[in-house]
Amino acid sequence: MEQCLSMAAMTRDYHPRHVVPDIAARSGDRKTELHSSWISGLIEIAVRRYVPEGFPEHVAVTYHSPAYQGTTLFLTVRPEGQDPTREGSVLRFEVRDGRRRLVATGEAVMGDRGTKSVGHLD
Asked: How many domains does the chain divide into?
């Protein structure tokens, strides 16, 4: 829970579904929802590990269903093309929870090796 409160402080998003277990329970959820910033961070880390010598110029994420605190998430990264380090190469990804429910999908477009800017779409 401490990490959820830290994320809320960092993003200034104190929505009760993210930080108040009792309210999350009243809305039918057993646990608080993970903030989408957690999932975006996971995706960025995975892309950088998959292509350590490349830089994502753009990352687009679509969220399909919530993930909850304490949930195991599985991330699959799939390159399109032979060389994922080339400028303009695309890495597609999907995030699923422990029940294999789709949480998020998206793509990262690799930029020039000197490019370090990353944009997000929610």
From this structure: 1
